[in-house]
Amino acid sequence: MARRKPISDLTSELPGEVKDRILEYLPTPDAARMALLSTYWKDAWLHHGQLVFDSDFLESVYEYCDDEGITYVNIINNILFLRAGPVKKFTIKIRSAIDPPPEESDFERWCLFLSRNGVEELNISLSSYVEYKLPFCLLSCRTIKQLIVQAPFIDLPVNAIGIFSNVTSLAFFAVTFKRIVNGIASSISIPKLEKLALEDCDGINKFEISPPKLEILSIIGSMDDVVDSRWLAPHLKAIKTLWLCGTSLRYMDVSMFSTAINLQVMKLYELSFGCGKQLTVAMQLLQKCPNLCELGIMVEDEQSACGDDKEVASRLLEDPDGCFVIQELKMLNTIKIESFRESALIMLFMKMLLSKSPALERVVILKPWDMNDSEVSKILRKLECFPRASPNAQIVCTGNYCCKFEYYERNEYLDLYPWF
């Protein structure tokens, strides 16, 4: 008896690459349901190499799964281990307090499978209440190009060879770096790394790396241990973009830094103008960047500065030559200040920038959400009165500033990093 051909329709006859693109735009549960339409779509689903297991996935599991014995871990296993082709992009975000975290053994099985099945982009975000270890199979995986990790700790082998060998982008959030062997740690060569973001990480100084192609470096957030200036100094020679937070500035020794000849973009998060040390180091850092084109600052509330900080800041006001007089920033064309509030130090800082930036074209002020139009007009009038080295410099104020911490509440860290 001849085998009947499966019933087809217009969508089933679409080329395989078109079906795959359609599945890319669907949430993983909806993409899986497409397999029920016909065997043609089932084949497309089994070869689909982009899987996302996030809050939407968990909601779908709880909504449609009536069998209490089936867990989201079972469903992930069934979807992942039945792949008929490589899984090039994989995202897992299990961070809600109401969702039971996966067992570390399950997490390790997923990682081992992915490392053997051509994963190129990997986004891992797991509960911080469980101490997950990032398996060595991912550290040594040769297919990974982009790796984003939140919460697991990372054991860094001494004298390791082949770690992150083909990775071009790394982002670590709330990650703890550890050394698993006592002794002298050698620098890990990451030959293709171009972008590195570290936020709220611990043990950064143990993450000794030598990335010859690094162009973008971001180190922000509060850290238990301070980033050593000796760790940062070698990276300043080549990078084009640098993001730092104000709290880390106060512990830096800028005299150890060579001239950042290639640095074009710098952003300083939570810079407190009430902290004399932060402000002094920020100005010293600017002097190390002769080719800086774009400067961004997110202002921290000056009320958070301690008494000694405010005293130093007051002395800077009395003798601004000790901090604010620097050489011209000949390439600076854009300044962006977020959460701008008028204070004597901020206005003095802006006066200096306007007078030292002959190529300046645009100054953008992002007002705080609670600043009214009258206050904005007052600030703009004062800034307009300052002498400018550039006749083309325009000062504008734009909409309400969206606080960084709102990103944390949505758990969308990558909104802060447009290059990922």
Write the layout of secondary structure elements.
Blueprint: H1 16-24, H2 28-33, H3 39-47, E1 50-53, H4 55-64, H5 72-80, E2 89-94, H6 104-115, E3 121-126, H7 136-139, E4 146-150, E5 154-156, E6 169-173, E7 177-179, E8 188-189, E9 195-199, E10 209-210, E11 216-220, H8 229-232, E12 241-245, H9 246-249, E13 265-272, H10 276-287, E14 294-300, H11 307-318, E15 334-338, H12 344-355, E16 362-366, H13 373-385, E17 394-398, H14 404-410
Parallel strand pairs: 1-2, 2-3, 3-4, 4-6, 5-7, 6-9, 8-10, 9-11, 11-12, 12-13, 13-14, 14-15, 15-16, 16-17
Helix pairs in contact: 1-3
Which properties best describe this structure?
420 residues; alpha/beta; Leucine-rich repeat, LRR (right-handed beta-alpha superhelix); 13-stranded parallel beta sheet; two-stranded parallel ribbon; elongated
